[in-house]
Amino acid sequence: MKRPKIIDIRATTVAVPLEAPLRHSNGAHWGKFVRTIVEVETDTGIIGLGEMGGGGESAELAFAGLKQYLIGHDPFEFEALRFKICNPTASLYNNRTQLHAAIEFACLDIVGKHLGVPVYDLLGGKLRDEVGFASYLFFRHANEAGEGEVRTLDQLLDHARELKQKHGFHAHKLKAGVYPPDYELELFRALAHEFPGDTVRYDPNAAHSVEEAIRFGRAIEDLNNDYFEDPTWGLNGMRRVREAVRIPTATNTVVINFEQLATNVRDPSIDVILLDTTFWGGIRACVKAAAVCETFQLGVAVHSSGELGIQLATMLHLGAVLPNLVFTADAHYHHLKDDIIVGGLMKYVDGAIAVPTGPGLGVELDREKLGQYAEYYRQTGGYPYDRDPARPGWFALTPNTRWADPKTGA
């Protein structure tokens, strides 16, 4: 059987609407996700799919610039792919980790389709048929229709109940760091008490000082916490919090490569490593990192970076093969109004999504939707992730002291 060779790479930026703008400690998602969809074409006619966050013209040009490295490349040669794009010393001058991830997704998709097997079979075989997810709650601005705001206690609990009823979540994560810590503490405790049989996790995106993180952590020690995610910035800051608070720490910001993981093994700061298929540079890197975590008894979970269906598929295949996955995954996915894959949005059942079983990633592009949301991007453009539409001139500090007003949201 002829092995495929890469003959072209195409990148298309899309914007897909959200139910409402999502707020976080550094700014907001302004009512949509902007993603770059990558298609890697081969001489056998197989097209592999990849996805990367953000993008626009700069991302499309970056992928176009990689053609000179990859035309004629054999998609089976994953280690050669890694060094062609992400040689560690060369990458000091051109950080290509996220570009590599999208192309690796596509190459895994190609190999799976070529062999007629799902990606999870290329990664050691699946251990589970579905991957569980947390509800992933955000403070939200109202949408253009004046609906969907999440700011008050009642709005948060109503939204959490709605998501649990609709999707069946058994774990609830609050993306925080928007309002003053005491206000968020009140709401987080109420959230935990609303669902006493479920687990909770608090993530202020490193907005707190070490001292504030310790104070907040001690005030929630009695709750059914999965972990305390990125309450402060840096490995040393997280180490100090870990020493003072009796909740496992977690991160997707300060342990996102193998050098940082080695440092964390030598001088423990983080108990649970949140593996993001984009931030780590691909699915295979996450599987390797999970094996290191298994060796040193560190927890792992699957992290979300604002996915559409292609990247969600990578998360599902990753979650399917990890023997040490005991936590539910994160996903922004239920905040989306649509998707660019055939069949539309994947469905949650009892808080979980089934792992695709078709060849490759098991998802296909809906060409009509791809065109529709590429045009929507051209009409509306991107947005500054690290700014908030309700707070002109505002920007976050680390640690932050510039909180939004709980009474107005501004």
UniProtKB/TrEMBL annotation:
GO terms assigned for molecular function: glucarate dehydratase activity
Pathway: Carbohydrate acid metabolism; D-glucarate degradation; 2,5-dioxopentanoate from D-glucarate: step 1/2
Enzyme class: lyase
Pfam family, one: MR_MLE_N
UniProt-listed InterPro entries: DgoD-like, Enolase-like_C_sf, Enolase-like_N, Enolase_C-like, Mandelate_racemase_C, Mandelate_racemase_N_dom
Protein origin, superkingdom: Bacteria
Transmembrane segments: none
Annotated Mandelate racemase/muconate lactonizing enzyme C-terminal domain residues: 153-248
SMART domains according to UniProt: MR_MLE
Protein's name according to its UniProt entry: glucarate dehydratase
The organism of origin for this protein: Devosia epidermidihirudinis
Lineage: Bacteria, Pseudomonadati, Pseudomonadota, Alphaproteobacteria, Hyphomicrobiales
